[in-house]
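hey so i finaly got around to running the thing on Response regulator transcription factor from Streptomyces adustus. pasting the sequence first so u can double check i didnt mess up the copy paste, my clipboard has been acting weird all day
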Amino acid sequence: MDRIVVCLRADDPISRAGVASQLRPRPEIRLQEEGEETVAAVVVVVVETIDEESLRTLRHIRRTTAARMALIATRIDDQQLVGAAECGVAGILRRSEATPERLVQVINAVARGEGCVPADLLGRLLEQVGQLQSQVLAPRGLNFSGLTDREIEVVRLVAEGYDTGDIASKLAYSERTIKNILHELVTRLHLRNRSHVVAYALRQGLI
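ok and heres what it spat out for the 3d tokens, dont ask me to read them lol
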């Protein structure tokens, strides 16, 4: 059995020692020393609450390693939950529920590329995401992809093989407008050309 390489980051040495003592006896886990996140498959971050310092730690891990992240926290409110998700956290566990068995379940799920969040927290996260879409993005004509409905429609027609003139005719825009939309997408998303825009949209599930 391949062991999952895990690195711990904690607010304080007592918290780190407590979680480490739960993981060391587990045959499916190989615990690395703190500071060796670059070789870890999963980094487990242990905090009291998800504050700005915690979010900076999560962003740093995401930016500097390829490891997936799990978070153990004593207190989690709705805004903190969204912040952790934005930083790439895939598994969340309340400290009061962090038994050795549950902790290993979360680590296994995260290592497989799955999400693992308590049902009540998942419901709250989805509610927050829905509010963000309806109150912030939708009034600006955006969705979570960062593309407007008009941009998605243009890319869909490009993917179907229509040229600029055909797209302009179908959508009742000028050819110049269609060219500007595609140029804006290439520039904003740091893509190379129309084909790259289509590939991006396909990967994101937009078309």
